[in-house]
Amino acid sequence: MPEAPQSPPLRADARRNVEKLRQAAADAFSEHGLDAPLETIAKRAGVSIGTIYNRFGSRDALLDQVVNELADRRVRAAMATADGTAGGAWEKLLAYVGSICQGQADDPAFNDAFSRLYPNAPALKAVCDRSLAFATELAAGARAEGALRQDVLMDDIARFFQVNGDLVRAGDDAGRRRVLALLFEGLRARPDNHPLAG
Amino acid sequence: MPEAPQSPPLRADARRNVEKLRQAAADAFSEHGLDAPLETIAKRAGVSIGTIYNRFGSRDALLDQVVNELADRRVRAAMATADGTAGGAWEKLLAYVGSICQGQADDPAFNDAFSRLYPNAPALKAVCDRSLAFATELAAGARAEGALRQDVLMDDIARFFQVNGDLVRAGDDAGRRRVLALLFEGLRARPDNHPLAG
DNA sequence: GGCTAAGTTGACGATGCCTTCAGCTTATAC
DNA sequence: GTATAAGCTGAAGGCATCGTCAACTTAGCC
């Protein structure tokens, strides 16, 4: 079990470095995405690259800690947006998905986190899972209302984020919005719907 | 005819190497995508990596020659599929887009060529342009029939290939089909359509 | 002030790719 | 059979990144 092995408290300078690194990493990731070189982050924090390894152990660990928080903030904001949206579950679902997608467009770090799989970042994964769970609930509501197609699965919604993320990465913001709009059209329940392929 | 700039004829062995390299490159690209290392290609052709540079000048030039042909074949096949499809322009359009997308799923080289921009591959670009022109015509027909939404632009269709390509690269074939199906639903003209965002 | 364990540093080796080029091999013409 | 230009080779140099570690620095305790 990962019983915290009672690590001795950090020295004051080390604690300061952790803080500086966290900040620098968050900035670098948000500017350049999760591929930002450690060198850049270290320089930004005013420490050497070795210190990253001393304090965090690995690139993935740093990433997990920093982006986890960043992603959590965005996801919460999107939930709040959904909750604050007038209308039924359908409207809230669109608001939620739209808000997450806008977040992906606004922040490369969030985008990479949400769409690319970073398998060695458990905390990050947890945030994404929570987000999908929330969307699942809204989708169930929207389906019950008769606004969302009956045969749309949760995986379909999850893939919206993948698609949106790829278009963000391609730098095509106009296209991103168009594709999203078309997908939303496709989600709508209609009298003449027949089952989707797949 | 593209007037050849009168370069002196190749020696027989060099001509053979060009052929072996073309073949090896086509195979490697189709197996591993356009990122296939030159080392791999050279080994496969039974020559040294230097020979690639002697014969083609650069990675991009090799790529342009080889993938251009490969892509052209796929595009022609898709056009033939569309032409052979019963129904109106709408049905042909779906058949065409579906055929290209299936090609992207079947061949990583075609996929990379069609979705990632390889800006230094002019012949390749020409193939893609021809493909889009064909789709544009079909779309115009489908719009005239009243089957395709009035406000769908050619760029929207082009982005289908981008989206499809990204999902192929993610290895999610089921998802690819679902997203495509949803997008097709979104394309359909309906009495209650109101303008798309963007 | 001095000691020492905690912490930092940055050059280094490893990886994986591209591209070059000096030196060697060989097809071809005579 | 030989000369020679065409062609081939692969080691070497680049570049960008990761992760390590021996040697140095310093916080914090006495």
UniProtKB/TrEMBL annotation, chains A, B:
Keyword terms, alphabetized: DNA-binding, Transcription, Transcription regulation
HTH tetR-type domain sequence ranges: 15-74
Keyword Transcription: yes
InterPro entries assigned to the protein according to its UniProt record, in alphabetical order: Homeodomain-like_sf, HTH-type_TetR-like_transc_reg, HTH_TetR, Tet_transcr_reg_TetR-rel_C_sf
DNA-binding region: 37-56
Keyword DNA-binding in annotation: yes
Top-level taxonomic group: Bacteria
Protein name: TetR/AcrR family transcriptional regulator
